[in-house]
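Proteins fold reproducibly. Look at a concrete instance:
___
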Amino acid sequence: MTGKKLVAYLAIPKKEAEELLDHYHKTFPSIHEFQDELKERLELDGYVQDWFGRRYHLPSNQAYKAVNAMVQGGCGQAFKEGFNAVDRWLGETGAGAILLPVHDESIIESDREPHTTEADEMLAELSTRMEEIPQLMNKGRRLRVDVKYTETTWADKQAYKET
């Protein structure tokens, strides 16, 4: 975000916005380097390419959009790759089924009793499959995945009653 946009977004004076941005860039210098690298790639090639090979074609005067395309597009693709790996494993083993994907979360239903060795092993396997995406692992990166039990099943849900 430019200083001008930060002024409008936060309703702060221009000087304060500039100080905030300066502090931000000093605190996170690799972000500025990443932005510069994407801008250079966009000017040279006419596109930027994420770790999954997807290309984002943008006019060079809109290089600021390259960061968003790379981050959001890459994150979406990472989740898709991990989600597909989980789905394949669940189908092969019969350990459960994906019940509901929602943005960056998924609900998986299984007949395994919660908090048992069998269930814990299943969750560990699901985490591994989500975290170890080859395109990221090849770059020395790995997703961080949080897995939690729920104590109810969809069959146990109560109907919603308006009051």
